[in-house]
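User: Structure tokens for both sequences below?

Assistant:
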Amino acid sequence: MAISSAASRTTALLIVVVGVTALIGSAANGHSETAWKKLDLKNQGLSVLMPGNPKSKEIHNKSFIGDIVTHEYYLDDGRDSYSVEYTDIPGFAVAFSGSDTIYKHAKGALLKTTLSKSVSFTDITLSGVHGKRLVYDTPSKPGHPEMQGEARFFLSGDRLYVADAVVEMDRGKERMMRFFSSLVIEK
């Protein structure tokens, strides 16, 4: 009887240890268990993986060149945030100002909106489309870890694409890279 009682206690202890280990592991890697889903906007020439189902909205901005509409798809899970958007810019504005000016304005708007500070702004290419990569430090919420953001801007014809991710500085790089490595923009 003593042997089976000891075996039962050992088995129960083993089950508790395995259960706690699994629980701790799933809490530490909560995002890795999230199903990444493909956002496929074929008619808009864009696809990307996101850790969940994004919400969408249209943003209308009045400007001296007319009404500019941005289509945004975003996901914020309370810890990290991801977004992709595209904006059709009037052809004459693209021809007159050029891509560098458009990238500079898009960078400024993003930094202003997020109250962030630019770390670097470099040239990149994706599927033959030239663009810019912005790395920025963004303020964290009180009591939360430091955050870092990265945005990628691509101008293909008259359409500006922006992909943006804000993640925990120490733990979010892998998720950020998964997001950006899945980004596809058709020329």
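Moving on to the next sequence.
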Amino acid sequence: MSSPDSKPHPVIIVGAGPVGLITAVNLVKLNVPVLILERNYEVDQSPRAAVYQPCAQAELFESGILDDVRKESVLNDVMTFWKNKERVASITKTQDAIVFPAGLNCPQPKLAKILVDHLLNKYNAEIKFCQKVIQIDPDAGLWRCAFGVKAGMIQMGGYSEDPLGIWADDEVAKEHNMEKWVRTATPEKRPEDTQYYESLADLPNQDMVHVKQWNITLDSRWMEEYEDPEVVKYRISLRPDRL
């Protein structure tokens, strides 16, 4: 529980998984105070492997954690081809590579620990465990929310005098009893959605996310696998500069 004298946080992230923690790191690097709420008593420690190819390492580099991740990783620098259980060829992937010479293997619990260490020891962030979001007060005024959803992505929600709701899929909304807050990108809501997107270019909103990086979900490389093609086409058309 927060103390009566505690100040409200401009950004609250629900879920202390790798996605939520990386989002928190990127925000606090911009001097945005962040509160992270996790319903479990600690960061998930289940043994989950993770492979980071150069594109993912670039994201870790921007977040300022790549060096620490490398220390906890096993180098994944050989690609082997097999045919009928017989090894045909092996290629060393470090050849002619400079910035990100090979893939890295680092279990997700280790990544989460590194992120928590950075948040608590280097930046202005706070993590509270055993906290479950059960309600959003519509009379609370301005609010912002980052919410972890499927496919390991983050969708950003609401900056408005009247809350617009959380961007999330139906399963996430039902799990947290927040169906009435969910926003969707249906054609019927195009005018309202467009107004919302354009509002993110206003100066008061830029302390939340960069105007050109505000929504990872406009990346069609993964959206096409999970959403209706017409919805994908419409949402990309709103921000073609993101491609």
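User: Anything stand out in the second?

Assistant: The first strand starts at residue 11 and ends at 14.
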